[in-house]
Design a protein that fits this description.
InterPro entries: MecA_C_sf (IPR038471), Neg-reg_MecA (IPR008681). The protein is α+β, with helices and mostly antiparallel strands and 199 residues long. It folds into 2 domains: 103 residues, no CATH class; 90 residues, Alpha-Beta Plaits (2-Layer Sandwich). It is 40% helix and 27% strand. It is built from 7 helices and 9 strands; from the N terminus they run E-E-H-H-E-E-H-E-H-E-E-H-E-H-E-H. A 5-stranded antiparallel sheet has the order 8-5-7-6-9. A 4-stranded antiparallel sheet has the order 1-2-4-3. A hairpin with a 2-residue loop joins strand 1 and strand 2. Helix 4 packs across helix 7. The longest helix has 18 residues. It is globular and about 50 Å long. The two termini are 33 Å apart.
Length: 199
């Protein structure tokens, strides 16, 4: 299970088909609101809280889509609600939490690939659909693609995420670690450069 915070009120969670099988959930069963699926959902929410501080408070909207061989992507959005009575202390506490969450929000993702062929395959698919700032690193015998999502619409970001997951996996390795300990292969124009030289 991989959790990524998308903003103040939204998280994206990836769960593989292997994870589902371990929980005794069939692929078709994920769309049913059975006990196992409910338990899975609240496990995901607990994981989201532990990893990125996303806490379910009030109404939420849940979107899910499947990838043919990888697993299921679930996007959970906290829906704004207006409380009947809110005292001043809770307003101030909420404002403080909002500031912390905003600071933690990331506008970049890092994907890890086991071999260079997978990097090339991902670059070819992404190049035709997106205009991105991407850097490629080599670290601990794997390849890491750092993608800046700052100017992307949310819908495009989700589509990009799903495409990259066909060839690699999301990584928690930060840009700072890659710059310090990894080897920079291509800076800022990785997707374009790979397609130029390995088309």
């Amino acid at each position: 299970m991989v959790v990524e915070r998308l903003g103040n009120n939204k998280v994206r969670i990836f769960i593989s088909y292997e994870d589902l099988e371990e929980r005794g959930i069939d692929r078709d069963e994920i769309w049913q609101n059975g006990r196992k699926v409910q338990e899975l959902f609240w496990d995901m929410m607990e994981q989201a809280y532990l990893e990125v501080g996303f806490e379910v408070m009030g109404p939420i909207a849940v979107e899910a889509f499947t990838m043919p061989t990888e697993g299921v992507v679930v996007i959970v959005t906290q829906v704004p609600s207006i409380p009947e009575e809110t005292d001043k202390n809770r307003e101030e506490e909420f404002a403080a939490d909002e500031q912390i969450i905003t600071v933690d929000h990331s506008t970049a993702i890092t994907f890890m690939f086991d071999d260079f062929e997978n990097v090339l395959s991902a670059a070819k698919v992404v190049f035709s659909s997106f205009d991105l700032t991407t850097s490629l690193y080599h670290y601990k015998d794997r390849y890491f693609l750092f993608v800046n999502e700052e100017e992307m619409e949310q819908e495009d970001s989700d589509a990009l995420w799903a495409l990259l997951y066909e060839y690699g996996t999301m990584s928690n390795v930060t840009l700072a670690v890659l710059e310090e300990y990894g080897k920079l292969i291509i800076k800022d124009t990785a997707i374009e450069t790979l397609n130029q030289y390995f088309a």
